[in-house]
């Protein structure tokens, strides 16, 4: 149990590495309060010299004071929803005025690369199985789709949806073009997909993307695919995929609605100390079950740095106004 995260502060010659057992799920909110708060929060956590690997690290933030650069990944919704992440990025641009803010598309690999460290520090095997060949029969309601697959060729475009995770569908490679699926000429998307595949039969192009950082290769292309190119849309994959689709309707939240949702989450999480919440839960379980419940020593490895409710409201109002003004 945990939402493990690394915080790295580079100020001077040597980067400072910190660990939090509960930081990843709230990282998107914690970064909204700007660089001074982020540095203070990072330095309040557990100092460490050991890196988590790709499997265990669910979020990380490199705060480079020297170059005024923030490189990060994490947050529950941010990891899978590129649309919400785009709005959140505009909020961070206000909160981190004067800084370069970037999403780590390759997770920890991008972080260690930025520090000039060897990727072997964080490398680990992440087995990814291919989805079954009937991956495209699993979704009837488009609002439940997490993966979108489009096939372009001979003057026609077909689209199929799946509830299987994108990386498993991507693993099927060129088979997706002939797999059993419910193919549609027109699609109405009620939810933002987590990833997708676009196959252009005429151009012999296989393109794919995932909203979630992918530190390991998903698809390198079969050796017998003569003349085919295999491309990962590493950044803004959702936008690039939508640009390729000729007949698609999206029923997604507006920028204002996303702002409301992110701000509400920021206010809610700002009042919560995750360690105190776990201690309260364990206490109730001990009382109700009448048993001794042991928790790991790292369960308490997070320090909550509070901000007054009034200050949070004022800061979020400033961010919301700046983003909304730019929208209009």
What is the alpha-carbon Rg in Å? Answer: 22 Å
Order of strands in the sheet with most strands: 3-2-1-4-5-6
Spatial gap, N to C terminus: 43 Å
Q: Helix/strand-derived class?
A: alpha/beta
Low-confidence parts, pLDDT < 50 over ≥5 residues?
Answer: none
State the helix count. 9
**What sort of overall outline do the alpha carbons produce when their principal axes are compared?**
globular
Number of strands: 13
The percent of residues in helical segments reads 25-40%
Approximately what portion of the residues adopt beta-strand conformation? 15-25%
Give me the strand/helix succession: EEHHEEEHEHEEHEEEEHEHHH
Largest sheet: 6 strands, mixed
Number of domains: 2
Q: Compute the average pLDDT.
A: 90
């Amino acid at each position: 149990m945990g939402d493990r995260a690394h915080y790295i502060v580079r100020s001077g010659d040597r980067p400072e590495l910190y660990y939090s057992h509960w930081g990843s799920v709230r990282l998107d909110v914690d970064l909204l309060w700007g660089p001074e708060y982020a540095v203070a929060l990072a330095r309040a956590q557990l100092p460490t010299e050991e890196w988590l690997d790709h499997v265990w690290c669910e979020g990380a933030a490199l705060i480079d004071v020297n170059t005024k650069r923030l490189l990060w990944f994490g947050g529950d919704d941010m990891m899978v929803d590129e649309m919400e992440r785009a709005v959140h990025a505009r909020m961070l641009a206000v909160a981190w005025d004067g800084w370069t803010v970037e999403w780590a598309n390759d997770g920890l690999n991008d972080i260690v690369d930025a520090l000039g460290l060897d990727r072997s520090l964080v490398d680990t095997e992440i087995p990814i199985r291919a989805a079954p060949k009937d991956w495209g029969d699993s979704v009837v309601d488009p609002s439940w789709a997490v993966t979108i697959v489009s096939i372009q060729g001979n003057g026609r475009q077909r689209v199929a949806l799946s509830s299987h995770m994108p990386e498993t569908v991507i693993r099927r490679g060129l088979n997706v073009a002939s797999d059993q699926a419910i193919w549609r000429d027109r699609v109405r998307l009620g939810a933002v997909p987590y990833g997708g595949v676009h196959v252009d039969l005429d151009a012999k192009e296989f393109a794919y993307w995932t909203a979630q950082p992918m530190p390991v290769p998903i698809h390198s292309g079969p050796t017998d695919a003569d003349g085919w190119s295999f491309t990962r849309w590493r950044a803004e994959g959702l936008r690039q995929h939508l640009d390729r689709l000729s007949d698609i309707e999206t029923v997604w939240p507006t920028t204002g609605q996303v702002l409301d949702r992110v701000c509400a989450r920021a206010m809610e999480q700002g009042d919560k100390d995750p360690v105190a919440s776990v201690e309260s839960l364990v206490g109730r379980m001990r009382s109700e079950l009448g048993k001794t419940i042991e928790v790991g020593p790292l369960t308490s490895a997070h320090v909550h740095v509070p901000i007054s409710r009034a200050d949070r409201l004022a800061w979020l109002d400033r961010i919301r106004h700046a983003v909304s003004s730019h929208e209009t």
